[in-house]
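help with this.
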Amino acid sequence: MYKELTDEILVELLKQGKDKAFDELYFRYRDSLVRFVYVRMKSVAISEEIVQEVFTSIWERRKTLVIQKTFAAYIYTSVRYMTLDYIKSHTVTDQYIQEVLDKNAVSYTSHNATEDSIYYEELQKAVDEAAMLLPKKSKEVFILSRVKQYTNKEIADELNVSIDTVKYHITYALKFMRTYLGEFN
């Protein structure tokens, strides 16, 4: 029954709390939204996570949802902004992790070298602890990628796995690191 309804009618039913209307909108747009995010993120897991967050937000705000134009325009705009927020919020942590792992990148020439030194020692310790908590294969891939600076192809050849598997483990490890190192943001 819901498959034949327009987006606008489904949104009205959603506002009334009809979860089947929500399900129809979700399944109608999910795959194309994941592909849309994947173009920028190059990770299926992260793309799915972003799309899921947007739909969760829509469900939570369903009673007060205001859509100016079409649902399609609304959902794509929401996903685009969530993707940009994701990139912005994770860039800083990734840079800190890379600085700690790249011993040559750390410069202690600032006016407060002692404070910087303590901060980087704490961050290095936290990165080491987080790496030890990773699953075995993710830890191997992370160390080869970020510590030994192997390319994805070199890692795939070394571990006899596909490049997609390497990308998955790197994405997983970085996501885990971001969560574990949240206090350093």
Q: What stands out?
A: Residues 71-101 form the longest helix (31 residues). The radius of gyration is 21 Å.
